[in-house]
Specification:
Largest sheet: 7 strands, parallel
Number of strands: 12
Oligomer: single chain
CATH architecture of the largest domain: 3-Layer(aba) Sandwich
Shape: globular
Number of helices: 13
CATH topology of the largest domain: Rossmann fold
Radius of gyration: 21 Å
Length: 379
């Protein structure tokens, strides 16, 4: 199969692409605008595959998106391109409306026109998979309540409102035009290659640097944590096996208070990092409570019974196993996150050769680096 993945250089998108290339025979075309959260180095493990290709394309550019459909001719679209940070949406909501709402509309229209020209069998098999968030459901007030696929939408932030809007568009294109779609809503993701502005990587990297570990309010906010590679497996299963018109909630069955997440990371670091920064005895000494964010939801939790029942998916990682893997990944991949922190991952266009894209440049530099590491020492 040929799978078009938007946002494939982002955190979840790159995990999906790595999963497909490493575990299937499918062909992948990544569409990514390469904004600040798009990092081609997260795709380095699969960049050499002949089944992988990349286009630096803005999903709000209708002509460019249509051209990609015509050239690649996908069997499945997995739409992950989105602005996704709640704090950024509060400070600047316009980009979230543009990408998450207008971008999704533009992609849906391109998909619809492409799909309408397919043969009947191809039409039936085609899927537009829209990847969304549990934040569209708003807040859970009861301690035992769970978000189901029937939970009414009640978004609290500009981010979650923009994602709710895009979800509604996707379902409308299914009902009005018959476009075969599936929608997934997931809980909080974590794992390797996570951009350092989010809670878990921020905590790990601040701790290693001896910086304060900011925790909103009293840290009692509860989230259901999903290891990103478990999520990637689930998304592929929905895209290839999900029933058109259906929604599937994807959760990790791992509810934790934010403060407990931070303390767990500190405890792991205490065990594996011998030389602690500054004069601290324990990494938890760095925990600092800060003013809560406006409209901060208290609890999210997913009921993932439907995807388990209908498609046979269950997460492989517990929170304990996943968070330990994540901490160790950051300890062992300093080059990746250091280049994100200092901005060098966003390769300067001044190094581009004629007719070379930024993606081509990164691939060339990676290949040159591999050749250098294979060269025998002159000493």
């Amino acid at each position: 199969m040929k799978i078009l993945v938007t946002g494939g250089a982002g955190f979840i998108g790159s995990a999906v692409v790595r999963h497909i290339i490493e575990n299937t025979r499918d062909e992948v075309r990544v569409l990514d605008c390469l904004t600040y959260a798009g990092n081609l180095e997260s795709l380095a493990p699969v960049a050499g595959s002949e089944r992988y290709s990349f286009s630096q394309t803005d999903i709000t550019d209708a002509a460019a998106v249509a051209a990609q459909f015509s050239e690649f001719r996908p069997d499945i679209v997995m739409h992950l391109a989105a602005e996704s940070h709640v704090d950024r949406s509060i400070d600047g909501p316009a980009a979230f409306i543009q990408t998450n709402v207008i971008g999704t509309f533009t992609l849906l229209e391109a998909a619809r026109h492409y799909w309408s020209g397919l043969g009947e069998a191809q039409k039936q098999a085609f899927r537009f998979h829209h990847i969304s968030t549990d934040e569209v459901y708003g807040d859970l007030h009861g301690t035992d309540d769970l978000f189901t696929e029937e939970t009414p939408y009640a978004p609290s932030s500009p981010y979650s409102a923009s994602k709710a809007g895009s979800d509604h568009l996707v379902r409308a294109w299914n009902r009005t035009y018959g476009l075969p779609v599936v929608v997934t809503n997931c809980s909080n993701n974590y794992g390797p290659y996570h951009f350092p502005e989010k809670l878990i990587p921020l905590t790990i990297l601040n701790a290693l640097a001896g910086k304060p570990l900011p925790v909103y309010g009293n840290g009692e906010q509860i989230r259901d944590w999903l290891y990103v590679e478990d999520h990637a497996r689930a998304l592929y299963k929905v895209a290839t096996e999900g029933k058109s018109g259906e929604t599937y909630n994807i959760g990790g069955h791992n509810e934790r208070k934010n403060i407990d997440v931070v303390r767990t990371i500190c405890a792991i670091l205490d065990k594996v990092v011998a030389q602690k920064p500054g004069n601290i005895t324990h990494f938890a000494d760095l925990i600092t409570f800060v003013t809560d964010r406006p409209g901060h939801d208290l609890r999210y939790a997913i009921d993932a019974a439907k995807i388990q029942r209908d498609l046979g998916w269950v997460p492989q990682e517990t929170f304990e196993s996943g968070i330990e893997k994540t901490v160790l990944w950051y300890l062992n991949n300093q080059t990746w996150w250091q280049r994100v922190l200092d901005g060098s991952y966003a390769v300067s266009y001044t190094h581009l050769r004629a007719h070379e894209t930024r993606h081509d440049l990164v691939c060339r530099l990676l290949l040159e680096k591999k050749k250098q590491t294979r060269m025998p020492s002159s000493a």
